Amino acid sequence: MTSPMPVPPYPHPAPPGAWPRSPAALARATAVLLGLVVATDLFACYADLLEMDVTKDLVDGVVGDDVIDRADHADDLYGLSGILQGVALVATMVVYLCWLWRVRVNAGVFDASRHRMRLGWTIGGWFCPVVNLWFPRRIVADTWDASGPWGARSGHALVNAWWALWLADLFLGQLADTRSRRAETAEELYEAARAMLLSDALDIVAAVFAVLVVVRLSRLQERKLRSEEMPFPAPPPAPALG
């Protein structure tokens, strides 16, 4: 006869009405919008390549109406790609923060002892200078720990990889944007477009890892909601991620 599973020590009972809810719908919406970010980044990479191609010709001394027309076309696509990326980023950020708030609230109900940051930092940590370099990663890691099976060792390899890529993309994007704004000669424009291409490509990789974190963490919580580890009866959660 097997012994019953020990009850995990929930040191802080959930306040009235603080039922954990399924993050599945918000996770799907976040993943879709991150896919949109990838699509706009791919378009931006195409625009970057066109910009590099025409500025390389200008550096090599190629002249004529054809080069001017290509330069105008490349500049138009370059500007359009920046607008599309900005719109996709803002929309994704809003939905992502809604998802992150939901999983953080859930994790606070699962195990309040795992969290080193107050709930308000879930949003505020992204917008406060300096601390936004590590607070969001800490919040996601703590939420990950609280969402896993009680007593199991949880690694942060995926979270760490996502955050490292995000920081690298943040710094490279700022560098590329500065070069682009200060570029005046054809050679400087070429170098700025090359830096922007690297930034856009890195942003694609970072977005893919962000999707993986969203999906994995949401599935951890779905399993937690359906397990016998809940400290109190909860209403049936929404359907799990497919």
UniProtKB/TrEMBL annotation:
Domain DUF4328 positions: 69-218
InterPro entries per record: DUF4328
Membrane-spanning parts: 77-99, 119-136, 196-217
Protein origin, superkingdom: Bacteria
Keyword field: Membrane, Transmembrane, Transmembrane helix
Protein name per its UniProtKB record: DUF4328 domain-containing protein
